[in-house]
Amino acid sequence: MAERNPLSQPGERRLIPKVSVDSETFGRFAEGVASFMGTAKFLVYMTVFVIVWIALNLIGLFGMRWDPYPFILLNLFFSTQASYSAPLILLAQNRQERRDKMSFDEDRRIAAQSRADMDFLAREIASIRMHLGELATRDFVRGELRSELRELAERLERTEEEKP
Q1: Which residues cross the membrane (predicted)?
Q2: What is the pLDDT of residues 110-163, one digit of tens each?
Q3: How far apart are CA 89 and CA 154, in angstroms?
Q4: Does residue 27 sit within a domain?
Q5: Is residue 13 part of a domain?
C-alpha cells in the first residue's frame, strides 16, 4: 500500500496569525469601556476635547494648526472611536443578556421549587384536616368516659343488690 503524499493535500494557510484572547478578561474590559462611555463624565471629557481641538485648529494657538476647518482628522478620530465603541458596547450588552438569562432561569427554577413546596404543604394541610375529622375531640372523649362511668356505677349497684 502506498503512503499518502502530504503534498497531495491542501495545507492550512493563515494570513493573519492566530491570537489567543481570554474572553472573560476582554469581556470585563468591554463592560468597563461601555459603562464609562455611558456616563456624563465621558460626555464632558469628549466635549472639552472637541472644543480644545477646534480652538487650537481655528485660532492656531502656539502655531498649532494640524487639522484645518472641515476638521477631517477629527472626523476620522470620531469614526474610529465609533467603530471600536459599537462592538465593545454590543459585547457588554451580550454579556449582560447572558447574565440576565442565567438569573431568569435560576428565578424560574426557584419559583417552580417554591410552587412544588406550596403544593406539597397544601396537600399535607388537607390531609391533616381530613384526619382531624376522624379524631376524637376532648369533649367527645369526656362524654364517652362519663357514659362508661355511669354504666360501671349501674353495674356496681346491680351487683350489690344481687348480693345477699
Answers
A1: 42-63, 69-92
A2: 999 999 999 999 999 988 888 877 777 788 888 888 999 999 999 888 888 877
A3: 96
A4: yes
A5: no
